[in-house]
Amino acid sequence: QVQLVESGGGLVHPGGSLRLSCAASGTIFRSLAWHRQAPGNAREWVATYGRDGSTMYADSVKGRFTISGDNGKNTVYLQMNSLKVEDTGVYYCRLDGSIWGQGTQVTVSS
Fold this sequence. Notes:
mainly beta; 4-stranded antiparallel sheet
């Protein structure tokens, strides 16, 4: 059974940092992506890591977020720096464009 487990969310002040992790089990991923959903908003794509080391970012997080992966651990990380209030939301991991994790809450507030 394929499972994704996200961790690392929390409460942080504006300008702060958080590191999210997404660990996949039951399969070897080709790509893992992070998406987020703020209250009342549609879920939006944030960044993608490919097993070949390729990365892609939404314009809203370029220069602030870094996605990376440890292929041996089948895990992807999202380092989030210079966090803004508008980064608040539930962050979800998605495997190969299909399977979703349960999400982890990120709250940026003063």
